[in-house]
Design a protein that fits this description.
The chain is mainly alpha-helical. The protein is built from 8 helices and no strands. Helix 1 runs antiparallel to helix 2, helix 2 packs antiparallel against helix 3 and helix 6 packs across helix 7. The protein starts with a helix and ends with a helix.
Length: 175
């Protein structure tokens, strides 16, 4: 067996286990988190097949946006019985979450301050879209346009969406 086949079988077992978690967990939040894990495993399958764009879209759209929105709705309409439960069963999870948060902030800061290299052929031709599409393809042209030409409006739009979600949560919450 090659390494790719072993990775496939490990990924298959993990994705089946997380899919069973979607069905078998009784808590709705646990089911949603298990579904997010299943969607991430599906993205890893796409990466194994060489479909990097589909894998990224899978993570951004389904595991990122739709499932986070679903988690907001589930936690907003959850019964108030969870307020009377005992304290955290896993006391070390706050430390792990803090460390992972610092790693995320560090990685994002590194990416923000080092920047990414823009292809010199796009700059040399004046950035004409038809030339970039002919030389690099549609997906690369879309990525260059989105993350280099329209990065600020893209980030402002995402910030507005997050603010709208938080506003909806605050206004929709029971007193």
């Amino acid at each position: 067996m090659t390494g790719i086949e072993i990775a496939f079988f490990v990924l298959a077992v993990a994705s089946i286990a997380s899919a069973l978690g979607v069905i078998l967990f009784k808590n709705a939040v646990s089911c949603a988190l298990s579904l997010i894990l299943t969607l991430l495993f599906l993205a890893l399958f796409y990466l194994q097949l060489g479909a990097i764009f589909i894998a990224i879209v899978q993570i951004l759209i389904y595991a990122g946006a739709i499932m986070v929105l679903f988690l907001f709705v589930v936690t907003m309409f959850a019964s108030e019985a969870s307020d009377t439960e005992l304290q955290d069963r896993i006391p070390w999870q706050r430390w792990v979450a803090g460390i992972l948060g610092l790693v995320l902030v560090g990685a994002l800061s590194y990416l923000l301050f080092t920047g990414t290299a823009i292809d010199s052929s796009a700059i040399a031709t004046g950035g004409s879209l038809s030339h970039v599409v002919n030389t690099q393809g549609n997906i690369e042209a879309f990525g260059l346009a989105l993350f280099h030409g329209f990065a600020f409006p893209f980030e402002v739009t995402s910030l507005l969406i997050v603010v709208a979600l938080l506003g909806a949560l605050v206004l929709g919450r029971k007193a």
